[in-house]
Write a structure and sequence with these properties.
With about 180 residues, the chain is an alpha/beta fold. It is about 40% helix and about 20% strand. The longest helix is centred in the N-terminal third of the chain and has 13 residues.
Length: about 180
Amino acid sequence: MDRIKVGVVTASDRASAGIYEDISGVAIMDTLKEYLQNELEFFYRCVPDEQKEIEKALKELSDEECDLIVTTGGTGPAPRDVTPEATEAVCEKMLPGFGELMRQVSLKYVPTAILSRQSAGVCGKSLIINLPGKPKSIRECLDAVFPAVPYCIDLIGGRYMVTDESVIKAFRPKGK
């Protein structure tokens, strides 16, 4: 079974300055450990809400050949929320269906989900997914989109992901 490389980027001025602990990045790693049976190697970055810093982290992780790069934070409408812009700047292709589904799921819980600008895209052989900043929302959004993630990574040339089907089931078309 392939070892999967996962990049985790937390975009937060306060967490990157050590003002508070980054529980969102930990929530992503914990969730992926539950989802996947593969051995996982995590590459973690905690950066300020600066577009160039986020872009740099995303490019470095893609260059490290991470199959999946998951961000948390910086997806709202506030002036310093620039994670989607950084993602779009480094990606060759954007995958708007990820953001659409995440917002749809989040709207079941909070009316402010329409303010979220989560997105996803392909950078080299890496799938980048932008998630919200709260651990509960991270799990809700990952639960919604993750069934499509392994097949997307197959399509862009990444390593083969095996899910724990008692937790989450990946969808791959018949014969794939």
